[in-house]
Backbone:
């Protein structure tokens, strides 16, 4: 019996060792870094995206993923996407893509740029671009979106149409682009109605729908009847609150949210993220990209106000005309808001 | 006016805490650590939306939500009671499982990774936010009576006595003929049903399921259970306290007196203060977390 046990144990050890070796070998056979010695033209153009949230949020992250897909379709790139949850994962995943030899990695959000700046020196052949970022290195660049112009238009609509004289802005967390957007919104509302009161709140995160709804209800309790939301997934709660109270309108952000609750949405401040991503990727692929902060706004047709066609006739004609003339100024690049805090004042 | 708004909002925010904390009380009183309340709530929320979507009836959705919570609790029960798994580990595992499973089935059933389509729900149809709308939601009434009824059951019925006995001294209970394991199963599954009901409230209030919509409420409920020293009356007050802190945070935001980040901290700081102040004197059920 003892002999049998010894042999059995040796046998088990052998099996375990073989299994371990097999697993290690298989892991090593994963997608490896591409051979750099093939030369630039032979290799496929590889682009990756890190998002801070889910790509079905119908807003910030969804737009980025649509941009990635457009890069794949228009430029024939190989694409990859990871949804990151914690800041620790930002750096980890930047390194992974760098090690795998990706040409272009987008970090979608202001929060990614510290990690990008830390990782970039180790992978000089990879270009790291952060959306809403303002850091520039040899292989780090930023895209900033000028929310200010389109948010100003949203403010004009809100200020003109508010019956209670109180409008609200609800954000996820107080990131500089969000704050700049809300300040432009307030400015737009005040320029048409100097008596207007603008309430600003931050939910504290981008995911808690119930908290979003409660924030909206709190602002509605103070009389706000038009809510400007910039809270990604949590913003869905704000739409829900507006749905339940027929006198309240919502203005969406980041993606065309006019379809979420068409009966209560006046319009959206839309970042044409796919267009923006494509512009950058095309420059990178053609090889003439210079690391810089690229500022995109209404002039480049990247951040635009899109009215909701369903409620179009509720916006008074005078307001619509005002919006049109303002948009003409913005597209021509001659629209100026002195004294308005830009998200990144050293740009422009 | 402000007072009514504050009260209505506090009650609305306290609802999921009431349900989940009731589940926590039952589970911990019977000796099983209630770390999975979050997972039960999330599962309940998802199953509610599933039920409402396919049946078009919010009450069926509610029942499905309860069933979902119970199903998740069954997994925990089998793992900890039958297989004697470490309760903390198993509890956290159920939470992770719930996050992953809801995401998976969200993709499978609704082809989305963040939210389901709109379904029928409860309440809020007329001028949401006021007392009228809040109390027009039948689940709110359920929530208000849950902890008092639980208190009655725990302290005034033989079943409640046996449940508490199992959580304090299972050997003594067994020696008197109480079926210890059966009561443990009942306790855990009941806690799943209650927490699932909390999730059902969240989902039917939003009229949809959103990935991760419970956002840590199950853990706050557990904190309320500990803060309330496992007594339903005190737990109800603890839930109200935490809800009031959140309401305060939300109402203060609009006033812009203090930077928003400090205001957001209020509920969490309060939680820490509450627990630090209470922990020294807390005496949990004697057999909590132990399996003889």
Residues:
């Amino acid at each position: 019996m003892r002999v049998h046990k010894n042999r059995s144990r040796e046998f088990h050890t052998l099996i375990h060792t073989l299994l371990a070796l097999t697993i290690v070998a298989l892991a090593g056979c994963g997608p490896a870094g591409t051979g750099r010695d093939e030369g630039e033209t032979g290799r496929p153009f590889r682009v990756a995206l890190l998002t801070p949230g889910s790509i079905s949020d119908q807003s910030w992250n969804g737009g980025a993923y649509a941009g990635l897909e457009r890069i794949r379709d228009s430029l024939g790139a190989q694409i990859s996407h990871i949804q990151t949850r914690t800041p620790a994962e930002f750096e980890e995943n930047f390194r992974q893509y760098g090690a795998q030899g990706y040409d272009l990695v987008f970090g979608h959000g202001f929060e990614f740029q510290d990690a990008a700046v830390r990782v970039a020196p180790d992978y000089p052949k990879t270009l790291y671009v952060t959306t809403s970022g303002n850091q520039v290195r040899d292989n780090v660049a930023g895209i900033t979106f000028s929310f200010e112009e389109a948010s100003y238009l949203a403010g004009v609509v809100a200020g003109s149409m508010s019956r209670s004289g109180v409008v609200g802005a609800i954000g996820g967390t107080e990131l500089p682009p969000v704050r700049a957007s809300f300040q432009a919104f307030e400015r737009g509302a005040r320029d048409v109605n100097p008596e207007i009161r603008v309430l600003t709140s931050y939910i504290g995160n981008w995911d808690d729908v119930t908290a979003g709804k409660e924030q909206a209800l709190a602002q509605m309790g103070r009389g706000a009847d038009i809510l400007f939301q910039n809270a990604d997934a949590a913003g869905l709660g704000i739409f829900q609150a507006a749905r339940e109270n027929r006198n309240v309108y919502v203005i969406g952000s980041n993606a065309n949210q006019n379809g979420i609750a068409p009966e209560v949405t006046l319009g959206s401040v839309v970042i044409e993220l796919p267009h923006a991503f494509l512009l950058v990727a095309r420059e990178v692929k053609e090889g003439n990209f210079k690391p810089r902060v690229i500022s995109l706004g209404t002039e480049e047709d990247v951040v635009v106000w899109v009215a909701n066609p369903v409620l179009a006739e509720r916006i008074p004609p005078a307001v619509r005309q005002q919006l049109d003339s303002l948009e003409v100024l913005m597209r021509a690049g001659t629209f100026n808001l002195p004294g308005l805090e830009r998200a990144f004042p050293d740009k422009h | 006016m402000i007072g009514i708004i504050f009260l209505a909002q506090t009650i609305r925010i306290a609802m999921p805490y009431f349900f989940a904390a009731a589940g926590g009380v039952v589970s911990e009183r019977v000796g099983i650590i209630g770390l999975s309340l979050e997972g039960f709530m999330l599962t309940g929320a998802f199953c509610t939306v599933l039920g409402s979507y396919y049946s078009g009836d919010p009450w069926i959705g509610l029942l499905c939500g309860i069933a979902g919570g119970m199903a998740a609790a069954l997994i925990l029960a089998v793992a900890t009671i039958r297989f004697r798994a470490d309760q903390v580990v198993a509890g956290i595992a159920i939470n992770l499982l719930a996050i992953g499973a809801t995401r998976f089935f969200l993709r499978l059933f609704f082809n989305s990774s963040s939210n389901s389509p709109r379904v029928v729900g409860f309440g809020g149809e007329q001028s949401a936010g006021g007392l009228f709308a809040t109390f027009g939601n039948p689940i709110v009434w359920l929530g208000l009576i849950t902890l008092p009824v639980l208190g009655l059951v725990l302290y005034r019925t033989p079943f409640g006595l046996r449940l508490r006995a199992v959580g304090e001294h299972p050997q003594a209970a067994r020696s008197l003929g109480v079926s210890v394991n059966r009561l443990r199963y009942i306790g855990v599954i009941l806690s799943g049903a209650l927490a699932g009901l909390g999730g059902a409230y969240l989902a039917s209030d939003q009229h949809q399921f959103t990935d991760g919509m419970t956002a840590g409420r199950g853990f706050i409920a557990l904190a309320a259970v500990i803060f309330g020293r496992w007594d339903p009356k005190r737990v109800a007050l603890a839930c109200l306290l935490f809800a009031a802190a959140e309401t305060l945070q939300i109402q203060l935001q609009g006033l812009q007196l203090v930077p928003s980040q400090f205001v957001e901290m209020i509920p969490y700081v309060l939680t820490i203060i509450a627990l630090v102040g209470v922990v020294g004197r807390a005496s949990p059920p004697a057999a909590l977390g132990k399996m003889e």
About this structure: The interface with chain A takes residues 5, 9, 12-13, 16, 112-115, 124-129, 133, 202, 205-208, 210-213, 215, 246-247, 250-251, 253-254, 256, 260-261, 264 of chain B (CB under 8 Å). Residues 15-218 of chain B form one domain. The CA atoms of residues 10 and 244 of chain B lie 5 Å apart. Chain B has a mean pLDDT of 89.
